Amino acid sequence: MLYAGDHIAWTIGDTFRVLRGGIQRVSGVQSRIALHPIIAVRGAVPSRAWRHTPSLSNPKLFARDRMVCAYCGGRFRFEELTREHIVPVSRGGQDAWMNCITACRGCNGRKGNRLPEEAHMSLLYLPYVPSLHEDMILRGRRIVADQMDFLLASVPRSSRLYT
Ligand SMILES: [Zn+2]
Question: What does DSSP assign to residue 75?
């Protein structure tokens, strides 16, 4: 555990949880660890995953695109949305952030196996690859307010999370 090993360089935010451990027999003092919403870890970033592009999933894709269909501009519920490949996979398009956009079932069906220009359908917004901090937000884990401020500070202003 990072806290126990004195690996913390600094913390941000109020203590949001205190873990209490056992009472030491000699001193009679209960061991106690205060958790902060944000911690900086000393030394190198432990995981190589930080240097990688975030993985693509429908929940994250729809969150990136604010649940809005890129073709008709309508806002839909999760079940009504699809992962639309701008260049269809059958025509060499990649299943990746830059080729994927959120579309409602109706628009996706209408576009079919065509390029947007062939279907005379234009994109109302463009795809982009989320940063890793943005990815943490998109994953929708429980994030406390201090953490959200911290994550957003490094998310580019061009991100749709700001709109
Ligand atoms: Zn649509």
Answer: B
